[in-house]
């Protein structure tokens, strides 16, 4: 093809380029759509297989590792046991263990946002989303049961009640860095209020109350309800600026 | 020298063999001797753990501290004798015999084309091992010849993946024009149709999937890469969902896969012991990330995630942790008074913490007013609950003294060891005692 000179030729070339680009984008669009579709089929098939052929998959170590490979690559949770009659009745079988692993997984994933404290209801919702192909929805009771199975591994995981809500705490006191942040906050004036903690650290109220309660139990904080505005203050006599103050008085 | 006859196996810090890239562990037997009468210089391999993998037979000495280990590539086995059922075999320890081809100088050859053949006898002294099952697996793996396909597939697999990604057509507009648009579109469509078809074929039933497993793994990898890399320019409502699935995939990447999880089926009586070793190898990385201490329940989740469908129960995990005391592993289980259990590095443990507490307690201010749990928490960068625990341990070791006053529970450096029992009034002009004296008199 010979290139024609002049403005007309340039315009033609530009138009052709635009057309190619449009076509390219079109193809790209179709391609991603198709791939998504295929990925969805792939996923649902894998999930089906994980459920139906669980035992057969286990028997063959070489195939098992390949199956896991597929699952991890396309983002399928290979844990998909049905609850079944015996699990429901006696709590035996893998179902509750699987739930347990998935629950801890969710707690680990959300820890950066919530500091290891999650509403039971929210946890349940996330769990259901993860097991969306499951025929029977997971209830809060199932969650509680699965968590109780983890008790063997120490008290690092517990369900606590704050007000009417139930919260799941996945970080034990010994490893909880929230307390350090409160102490740091308290250093400036020697006390904090729930409001202040929530605002300054942008925490949910459950998280702040839980942390302050633990500090009370540990004997690091003291409650002061006697202030005029009626807001409870948590004093920290152990925070060094105050103790030097006391030291200077005597 | 025993080592030059058979290849040695690399062992992990907990004494488990390190497997080759696509090698998978299939079965374990305990208390196995390997004997060979044809070779005078055959090493003395008595009472070890025998691991059958898809590629090799691995023999690791029971007392793993010696680290004696050998590997026999399945490729070098030229024949496996079927078990003889005789009256004698009922009373003696069960044996499995197989023929190895070796080179003239008595080394096991990898190719299986050695000039000499020797017969090796495996004597299984361990009780409760199901030898028939083992023998079947042995045969299957030997006939499976995984070592041949493994290497070839790895290379060709990566080629095909990279090949298909570089065939992205509209990245360079020049190529589009040269090949012709309709041609590319047709090719594109063909590609999708074949993918569709292979997906359909593979998921017909389990056997079909097994035979197509490698292909499917590659397809999965391809899809993942495309979805993760591209489609950032996609506008519209699909964005949200897409972000979700992307997130999901990245989450999954976090789980480090254990390719050959120890199972009850593969390890039999050795289950807990091997599980314990595998766990010790596994926790190293998460522990490092968590700063030397991690909640046992977190590990339960991570470990199971890495194992895929081979879940272990919390009870098994605990058992595995208890067994660490018996092996030489760099990690330990620790239980707090509160009932919380954590895993920590042995090296991370007390010595370093005590040193830091001591430095803290000998600062001028601390000498005068002592330190509290929250002071220690801030300095050590750990939670107050944990800091208190450390202070109490330091006290029990004699580094600190406690003082209970209206100010609360405070700790001071322990000066009593500094005082000379023969001359209690002697004022030393060096050491901690001296520093304390100076600080104390200055504040007065």
Description of the structure:
The complex is a heterodimer of chains A (250) and B (444). With 250 residues, chain A is mainly alpha-helical. Chain A has 3 domains: 6-74; 84-165, Orthogonal Bundle (Arc Repressor Mutant, subunit A); 177-249, Orthogonal Bundle (Arc Repressor Mutant, subunit A). In chain A, 62% of the residues lie in helices and 8% in strands. Chain A is built from 11 helices and 6 strands. Chain B has a 7-stranded antiparallel beta sheet with strand order 4-3-2-1-7-6-5. In chain B, strands 8-10-9 form a 3-stranded antiparallel beta sheet. The longest helix of chain B has 22 residues, at 181-202. Chain B has 17 helices and 12 strands. At the A-B interface, helix 1, helix 2, helix 3, helix 5 and helix 8 of A face helix 4, helix 5, helix 6, helix 7 and helix 8 of B.
Can you lay out the helices and strands and say which pair or pack?
The complex is a heterodimer of chains A (about 250) and B (about 450).
Chain A: H1 6-52, H2 54-59, H3 61-74, H4 84-90, H5 95-114, E1 117-119, H6 120-130, H7 140-149, E2 158-162, E3 165-169, H8 178-186, E4 191-192, H9 194-201, H10 205-217, E5 222-224, E6 233-235, H11 240-249
Antiparallel strand pairs in A: 1-3, 2-3, 4-6, 5-6
Chain B: E1 25-36, E2 45-53, E3 56-61, E4 69-73, E5 77-80, H1 87-91, E6 95-102, E7 116-124, H2 131-144, H3 146-166, H4 173-179, H5 181-202, H6 206-211, H7 213-229, H8 238-253, H9 264-267, H10 271-290, E8 293-295, H11 296-307, H12 314-322, E9 331-335, E10 341-345, H13 350-361, H14 364-369, H15 373-380, H16 384-396, E11 400-405, E12 408-413, H17 431-443
Antiparallel strand pairs in B: 1-2, 1-7, 2-3, 3-4, 5-6, 6-7, 8-10, 9-10, 11-12
Helix pairs in contact in B: 3-7, 10-12, 15-16
Subcellular location (chain B): Cytoplasm; Endosome
Keywords (chain B): Coiled coil, Cytoplasm, Endosome, Protein transport, Transport
Pfam families (chain B): EAP30, Vps36_ESCRT-II
